[in-house]
Specification:
alpha+beta, four-stranded mixed β-sheet, two-stranded antiparallel ribbon, 30% helix, globular
């Protein structure tokens, strides 16, 4: 009688294992999208976030930007947060990373299942008031490979 239930038990164990592994694999293969299209998948629910800013360091008072890559996980929390580009070289990278790590999201109406997506956010520091100069600064931190 025991041998009769062995294939059934093995099948159930395999199904359970796949049930736990599939969401992890899905997050590793998150679709890369441009920040401007993130609203189609996720809505940021905390527009104001805390940031760990340094007291002293290199180029803290200069206009600059940081492109921070991350994946919005199925729970709406950023994961794998990394500074991919920093212009000009400065000590503001950790501050940009901490700001993005504190973002929180809720799924959009078209993403009710909470599909993870990879994107990036451009953090601007000491931005000029002129919109054209501000845009030029942000353009320096654009990253290729994120579909609009």
């Amino acid at each position: 009688m025991k041998t009769m239930f062995r294939p059934l038990r093995q099948g159930l164990l395999l199904a359970l294992a796949l049930g736990f592994v599939a969401p992890v694999l899905a997050q590793d293969q998150a679709r890369q999208i441009d920040q401007q299209d993130l609203y189609r998948y996720w809505i940021q629910i905390n527009p104001k976030v805390q940031m760990d800013a340094p007291n002293s360091g290199l180029n803290l008072d200069k206009p600059g930007c940081a492109a921070v890559t991350y994946t919005v996980g199925s729970d709406g929390v950023p994961m794998d947060v990394q500074v991919a580009k920093l212009v000009p070289k400065s000590d503001l990278g950790p501050a940009a990373r901490s700001a993005v790590a504190n973002f929180r999201y809720g799924p959009s109406l078209s993403n009710r299942i909470g599909q993870p997506v990879a994107t990036y956010y451009t953090v601007v520091f000491n931005a000029p008031a002129d919109p054209a100069q501000r845009q030029q600064l942000m353009d320096a931190c654009k990253l290729p490979g994120y579909a609009p």
